[in-house]
Amino acid sequence: MSKVALVVGITGITGSNLAQELLKQGWVTYGLARNPYIRMEGLLPIAADLLNPEPLATAFANIAPTHVFFTSWTRMETEADNIRVNASMVRNLLKALAPQKSVQHMALVTGLKHYLGPFEAYAQQGFLPETPLREEQPRLDIENFYYAQEDEVFAAAARDGFTWSIHRPHTVIGKAVGNQMNLGTTLAVYATICKETGRPFQFPGSEAQWTGLSDVTDARVLAKHLVWASTTESARNEAFNIVNGDYFRWKWLWPRLANWFGVEAKGFDGVIHPLEPELANDAPVWREIAKRHNLLEPNLDKLASAWHTDLDLGRPIEVMTNMSKSRKSGFLEFQNTEESFFDLFTRLRTDRLIP
């Protein structure tokens, strides 16, 4: 039977890279978003709003995916609203697909907030887990929209008889425009502005992040992990961490990133320097850079997600992830993290998103 994939969140970092991997492997691939019309040969777009359940049945009337990959989320003001909205998105989708009885496997992408807590209590005292993070660590005793999304998947799987996998990446490094969590592109834009204005490339985070061990997830590795888990018997009905496989310290990586852009690196100096206020007045600077270099995106907010970069780099503990569970089950992909950043920067330059 042909493998037919439905990628939910096709315009994001994870969704777009996943679709490319699926198409490369010969899958029939549908991509769903409110505006799914991205340039990708072979992709079959579906325009839908998962918060509007009425038209979903019509959208899927003639589409029977065997594998669903859910990579989307919507940011709300409070965690209670995050739970309400993001759980509804999963529930509405799976309810709309249920009559087809075609779904064999559902993969859900969440992240390390599973261990570190939701935005409102992120990495705060009382919610600091032991690292490296391991899949068997229990849920925190606090509401979290990742838990609500998981519970919707579990309930639908029990009802409709499909298998599932949960994927928990660390910070995802890859190209996307308009993404709400985009550390790699945010740092590229920040370095470009530093070069333009003569400001130093100041590390914006905490001492724990500067000196401690960390890891990230290349979107290409995450894509391979999603396909692997959806087609591997031993990965069914399991949750997995997924990162590149190496560790680094920001005090080692930061000067290398600065060198790539030709700017002065400035490390942790005893004070956290959040990026959100640092970039708050730089929208006109970016528009001028975009105009002078004929860049495709003059809107700074479409490229940089300073709030999320501050969340990641401001944590009071080092954060790294154990990958033993995936390795034991047969997933052996590895990606050098420095090259993840440099590959992204090169692609952003090639695609005329940075000069």
3D architecture notes:
The protein has 355 residues and is an alpha/beta fold. It has helices at 13-24, 56-59, 79-97, 113-116, 145-160, 183-197, 207-211, 219-230, 250-261, 275-279, 283-293, 300-303, 306-313, 324-329, 337-350; strands spanning 4-8, 28-33, 44-47, 67-70, 105-109, 163-169, 172-173, 201-202, 213-214, 217-218, 238-242, 248-249, 265-266. The chain is 41% helix and 14% strand. α1 links the parallel β1 and β2. It comes from Nibribacter koreensis. This is SDR family oxidoreductase. It holds the Pfam family PRISE.
Largest sheet: 7 strands, parallel
Strand order of the largest sheet: 3-2-1-4-5-6-11
Percent of sequence in beta strands: 5-15%
What are the segments in which pLDDT stays under 50 over at least 5 consecutive residues? none
Number of helices, counting only DSSP H or I runs of 4 residues or more: 15
- Give the CA-CA distance, first to last residue: 46 Å
Estimated radius of gyration: 20 Å
DSSP, total strands: 13
Shape: globular
The percent of residues in helical segments reads 40-55%
- State the order of secondary-structure elements, H for helix, E for strand: EHEEHEHEHHEEHEHEEHEEHEHHHHHH
Overall pLDDT level: 95
Structural class: alpha/beta
InterPro entries: NAD(P)-bd_dom_sf, PRISE-like_Rossmann-fold
Protein name: SDR family oxidoreductase
Domain PRISE-like Rossmann-fold: 66-355
Pfam families: PRISE (PF22917)
